[in-house]
Amino acid sequence: MAQQLTTEVDGQLLKLTNLGKVLYPETGFTKAEVIDYYLQAAPVLLPHLRDRPLTRKRWPDGTGASYFFEKNAPRGTPDWVRTVTLPTPGSSTGRDEADFVVADDTATIVWLANLAALELHVPQWRIADSESGQSPTADLIVFDLDPGAPATIIDCCDVAQTVRDLLGHFGLDCWAKTSGNKGMHLYVPIEPASSRRTSEFAKLIADQLAEAIPETVTSTMTKALRPGKVFIDWSQNNSAKTTLAPYSLRGSDEPRVSTPLDWDEVAQAADPADLVFYPADVLARIEQYGDVLASLYDDPKPLPK
């Protein structure tokens, strides 16, 4: 395999380097394969990244080595890559703003993959309001379902269906995906609302379920209370928080993908292995089904008063 090549993606010339480098040592999955996956997945990935500031988690030497989070556009960012300067209150860098990359096109996704940006994280809001100096308004609520051993993603599936039923009483829809790790993420499309309101509502739902089925669910951060239960993390709705994007790889021992599910799959899953998806699996699903989340943003509902 050639170690580097220059190619054109959507009219942009890209130099791809170290293509034979193994980024997932356990399976031998290479940088070239990472780039190829993201190139093919770009049509379904882009709607979930577009107009959202992107935080990247990078493994330049592969997942067996150290990683780092990156908010600022790195040195040498091409001038055709869209960037936007946004406030980052409470940043550990001491700087109160960052120059975020915004992935609005396939070329940007391939460029990021070449930088070994394996994980792509976005907030639940889009950038328009922040650029105008206003507080960002969210168009999604997210619930992060995290199983405490010996609970598994199958327990998350049971909880996800209960969350969906409860949200239905509020007139809200719910969509599911694997986290690419051991849990699940649930998305609720809403008419724009402040992150304060979305956080309050998400906490309300989590607390109600923890009270109704305490043997199964916890809504508190205390790790000692999690064994055998599913922790419903509602805190990801804080405007400063991000969630792994649909179709993003995970920087784990294997190249697992955060994969959208339909509700029949959620209901029928019987073994955690049923919900582990690798790049080839996901590309086959995309070819067969398209984006399972394609209509996620089509009919947002207002948050209840």
TrEMBL record:
Q: What is this protein called?
A: Non-homologous end-joining DNA ligase
Q: Name one Pfam family in it.
A: LigD_Prim-Pol
For this protein, what is the EC number? 6.5.1.1
Gene that encodes it: ligD
Q: Where is the DNA ligase D polymerase domain?
A: 30-292
**Record has Ligase as a keyword:** yes
Query: What terms describe the molecular function in GO for this protein?
Result: DNA ligase (ATP) activity
Q: Which UniProt keywords apply?
A: Ligase
Which PANTHER family does this one have? BIFUNCTIONAL NON-HOMOLOGOUS END JOINING PROTEIN LIGD
